[in-house]
Design a protein that fits this description.
This protein has 94 residues and is an all-alpha fold. It has a domain at 9-73. It contains 3 helices and no strands. Helix 1 (12-20) crosses helix 2 (28-39). The protein is extended, with a radius of gyration of 18 Å.
Length: 94
């Protein structure tokens, strides 16, 4: 079971690793500075004010109840549930 809890300054190194993986364009030093600003109360939420961000979105599979609960615990609001479909097309028309 995943436990969702507020982030603390003892999570800095883990948070830094999670930030550097999806956002490699920023240096480790830049990410660390922003995390330090967050804990100093200079940034209320990690994305607030970052590059003009006013909201962000995330997704989870419809049957992934653990992920849905984690999203809700983090303050995200569910908007819609969708199913995605695809059909592979043979480029040779066979």
């Amino acid at each position: 079971m995943i436990q969702v809890r507020p982030v603390t300054s003892s999570d800095t190194d883990s948070w830094l690793r999670m930030r550097c993986d999806p956002w490699p364009e920023g240096s480790e030093s830049e990410h660390r500075t922003e995390i330090e600003r967050f804990f100093a109360g200079q940034v209320r939420e990690p994305l607030e004010g970052s590059q003009g961000c006013t909201e962000f979105a995330s997704d989870a599979l419809v049957d992934n109840h653990v992920s849905a609960a984690a999203h809700r615990a983090l303050g995200l609001q569910e908007t819609v549930q969708i199913r995605c479909f695809r059909k592979v097309i043979d480029p040779l028309g066979r």
